Every structure is written in structure tokens, then in C-alpha cells.
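G.,

No rush on this.
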Amino acid sequence: MNSRAAAIAVVLASAPCGITLAAEGVVTVGAGAEYSSGKYGGTEKTQILYLPVTAKYETGPWAFKAVVPYIRVTGPGNVVGAGADRVTLPGGAAARRTESGLGDVVASVFYNLFDERQTSFGVDVGAKVKLGTADEAKGLGTGENDYAVQADSYVPLGALTAFGTLGYRWYGDPPGVDLKDVFYGAIGASYRVSGETSVGLAYDLRPRITTAGARISEATAFVSQRLSREWRAQFYSVVGFSDGSPDFGLGAALNYRF
């Protein structure tokens, strides 16, 4: 449930290769890899490898998406999960460990409320659910379900597209922990260098979700490259500005659309 993925999705949505196909029904499948490292307010680094497999179906104004990740976490046991579903649990650092396995599956549905081709700006509204499929005993997740509602907006300005995200997330509380339900958001812009290449920058912000925790504050720079009508690749880097974010991260994804 992150707006980093939404930022890159805006680039895909504004790409000319798929505009006329969405009304007929479009399927996109993909795979990615992300490595991140940070201390998250502690004294030891946590290194996370996040390998998501995605599937998306678009028909008319509707978009349905599922993300099934494999994750590997090396670090203190109180840093659990990966990506936007990572949580630093209170109570001090637990023993360091390395664990891997299925992460939390995320499903979402979005509706295109305003089409930028007709109204000069676009708005998508939707809902997400993070299923507690990751093994909480290994520290791969909280073991609880989370729910969110979200709105994504974007304004094409020639080759430039400005975008923003605003959402609200309800966290499931693991035993003995009270996670706060919070608003989250992002702003950014992408620039179409050519018909095949777009670049962009996004800033994500989320308040702290535990009393002793830290907010998420991070920037993502990305490149989206169309390889053919069906294939598209994305590359991105992340830098964090708070204890709630990684010190840095690198990621890539490859998508096939048919």
C-alpha cells in the first residue's frame, strides 16, 4: 500500500500505448525487485529484499490489482514487513535475525472518477486491503489485516504530469501493540522525455503509527522505459529523511501488458 508504486503507475497511465485498450479490458503482469537498508531509529541496520509479483486487470473505469511478494529481512526482530507495509514495533530492538518467505498479499480496486482526456485532470478513487499472510513468528509481517482508502489525482501539462495521492489507513493491531490509524500522502511529477521514456520524482509522507515511532519521509526518483507495445521497465531509487524511512533503496520492475 504505497504511493511509490502509484507514482510509477501514473507514468504508465499517461503513456500513449494503452489509452484505447483499457475500455476493452487490459491485463498487466509483472515482477520486481527492491533492496533497501536503514536503521529505523535503532543502532543496527535492517536490510530488506522485496520481490513482488503483480497482476492487474483494467476494464472501462475499473482497475483491479493484486501483489504477492517474497521478502527477505536481515536485522533486529522489531522491524517487520517490507515496503510500505514495514513496521517498527515498540519495546526496543529484538535479537538480530535473517528470515525469508511469503510477504503480505495486497489487493486493491480503483475507479476512474474523472478522465483527464475529457476534464483536463484525472482522479482515481479506491480501496486496498493488506492481508496478514506473512509469518509473524518470523517477523515478516504483523499477522494482521490492514485496510485503506485512497485517491490519486494527476494533471497532464504537456510533457509534464503532476500527481498527488491522499489516503487513510486502518492498521490491524498485533498482540500487545496499538498501531495508530493515519492519513498518508504523496506529491510529485513525471516528465515524458520521449514516446518511450519518462522520468519523475515523488515525495511520500506518513505520520508515525506508534507513540515512540517515527514518520515516513522519503523521495523516490524513477525512470520508466517502454521496450515495446507490450513490455515496459521501471527503475527507481529511494532516499529517506527520517527514522521511519530507509537510508536508501534501489528497485526495478518489468511489466507485460496484453
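When you get to it, here's the other one too:
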Amino acid sequence: MMSPASNELGAIDVLILGGGPAGSAAAIELALAGGRVALLERTLHAHDKVCGDFLSAETLSTLQALGVDAAALGSVPVHRVRFAGTFGACSATLPFSAQSLTRRALDDSLLQRASAAGALVLRGHSAESLQRTNGSWNVGVSGPTRRYVLTAPHVLLATGKHDLRGLPRPAGIHNDLVGLKMYLRLAPAQIAALEDSIELALFHGGYGGLSPVENNMANLCFVIERTRLRDVGRDWPDILSALGRNAHLHARLAGSQPLLERPLAISPIPYGLLLRHAVADNLYAIGDQAAVIPSFTGDGLALALHSGRLAARTLLGGSSSQHFQAALHDQLRRQMSLATVLSRALVSGPQRSALSLALRAFPGVLRSVASRTRIAPEHRLSPESAASSSEKTCTAA
């Protein structure tokens, strides 16, 4: 049992900082199990994020377990992966069912589900400080009209790629990349050719993914070395010209219409980051605060949802944050190591050429990589919520 502290908002068992997939997944699990949960989300309204928008099979299974129907939100089926490198393009059927959906739609639906499950969702409220006093956490909060403090015995750090002041994440292994994203309206022939596929294209200094999303749009999400981006510039026409050096991508983007005023950007991206130890007692790092897998794998959302649910179940089971962080590390280290090695190879000149040649000669390797960079089946959580799989709750005794 967890003993809640007292607040002007009422007793809180768990305070979740961040309303992305990891934070929402944890909030849903805890609230359904009877926990008094408050979730802070710094934005007032749904918004786009630098993400590939890819929902793998384990992501879809988890969303269903949480009560979110991606198809009802307009998700687009994805059945194939296509690789466009130095020596042309090759494709393979994905070894699992997948879909594509904008983060704007997904995140908003998850927050609504968390609220319906009984969590207190505070939009437009962000954490500014975090201090531990007498066994509880005091979180300084900035709201739309005032600043105040919330207290809880347990805090889940789910701020995604934005670090809380005073709690920077360690550097990743492959951390010299900038992430950018643009939604596009492709030419009719190109959106038809893209159809049910996700495409990975290499270009000088980086790589990018292109996939269809709802409303007949395409999502182009890519990473590029900082030094290369400085040479290219941040204006979309200049970026488009640089991407166009990949012949396949050049054909796809010909005649396309950008749908955002400018590309979304985020830096640095600590690819390969995987925490082994908890930052402090009763402080759980989840989502991108715990692990950042290279984007080409398409497993970032699955990993975020898994970490949030695992943290919730660890709390409900009475285990410590140290136990949770160690367990998550052990579950993810193999796929994270492989993905990080491949990410470096996708950017490095000589390794990029060798990898392109290997994939061109053996397209089946695409299926193997897609399988080996997923959460291992033995580590996937049961589809039932914690409330249905355990009689424990996190309310006060």
C-alpha cells in the first residue's frame, strides 16, 4: 500500500510529470487499480511531435489493453518496409502488423483515456522543480494562472525528450544527431506508391523515415548530424534539396507540399541511452527519460508504453524504483545495443555503403532487423490491466 501525501487537490499517491504515451499509460494502469494519480502535461492542447508515428504490433496490443482504438482514430495500415540506400531500393513484408498515426491524435486520445480511468489530468501545468523532503516529493508546478506545490510519495518522470531542470539525462551513445519532422501532401502518384509502406532512406549525414498517416498526409521524420545541418541550413527548401540527393526520396518528395510552417526540430537526441539505476528512491524514469532507441526501429512508442505500464505494475506490486529501473534495463539492453550499432552504420560513410549493399543483396535482412529491434516476447506485459490482473490497489491503508 502507498500512503498519499496531502495537497490542495486532495491526496495523491503518484504524481506523473509528462502526458506523453509513457506517462498516460502509467496513469491509466494506476488509476484503474484504484490509485489517486495526478498527471501534469505542460501543453494545453494536442500538438505534433518529432516522431515517426509508427505503431508496431506490440504498440497496438498495448493500446488495445489501455482502451485506445488506433483504427477508430484514423490510423493507416502498414504492411511493408522499403529501404532506399546508395545502391537503390529494396523492400520486404513486415514480420508483424503495424499502423501509422499522428502523435497529435494518439497522445490526445491517451490523455482522454487517463482522465476517464480516474486520473487527474492537469493540462497547461508543468513541473519546474523537484525536491525530496521527509520521504515525499515536492514538485513546484507552473499552471496557467499561478505557481504552486504538489506533494506525493512517488513521482514518475515522463517528460520525454525535455529534461526537468536539475535532472539532465546522461549522454547517449549516438548523440550527435538533430531530429526534424515535416508533414507533407505528396503528389497523388507518390502517395499511392507509398500506400501501406514505411520507407527508410539514407542521405549524406543522416537518414529518414517516410510513411502515410491519416487524412491522406505523409510524415517525413529524419535525423541529421549537427555539423551537416549547419552546412545545409534550416530552411525547408534547403533541407529538401539535401534530402533530394537520395534518388528514391527525391522522387517521393517531388511536387510535395509542406503542411507545417517550418520543420519541427529537437536536439540533442541521446540515442542508446538506457538507465541502469534509478535516479532516486521512489522516482521512476519512464519513456525517453529512461531509454531512447534509434528512430529507424519504429519501436520508440512501444518502448514508452511498456515502460509506463511496467513502472505502474512495479508500484502496485510494492517493489522499488531501483528494482524497476534495473528490470527495464535488462529487458531492453539487447535490442538497444543492436539498434544503436545500426544507427551509427546508417550515418557513417563507409559503413552506410556496406549496409546498403548488404540490404540490397539480402532484403530478408530488413525483416530480421525489424524483428530483432522489438521488445522480446518474454518481456511483454499481459494485455490485462493491472486492475484486472491483481487485487492490489495503491490507495492509502
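Residues 256 and 339 are 31 Å apart (CA to CA). The chain has twelve helices and 17 strands.

Enjoy the weekend,
O.
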